[in-house]
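Data availability (excerpt). The following record was deposited with the supplementary files.
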Amino acid sequence: MKKLIFIFSIIFITACSNESHSIYGEISSIEEGSINVGCSDLVSSKDDIGYSCTIKITNETLIKTQAGEVLTFDELNINNIVSVYFKEPISLSTGTEGPTFEAKEITVFEN
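Predicted structure:
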């Protein structure tokens, strides 16, 4: 019984931490070395503002298709749907303007 309570406590604490390891969204713009992806779902807010996160892409960032084919940065396009896995867990809060996070892996989905 104590093990069960301990496990539920860990799950509860993890769920309430507001940290995320990844986001899923549409590329809204592409800049040199980074992309902007909608991340409104990660921001706890009562307003209707659409939030965008800048995702920094380095030489170590793996960019691939859903089928596992490796892509280059130049093959990314605006309106691509992507799943971005971060190098380390991120935390967003209301009022965070223009957050930038480093991508570990990006998966591009078929449009």
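Summary of structural features: The two ends are 48 Å apart (CA to CA).
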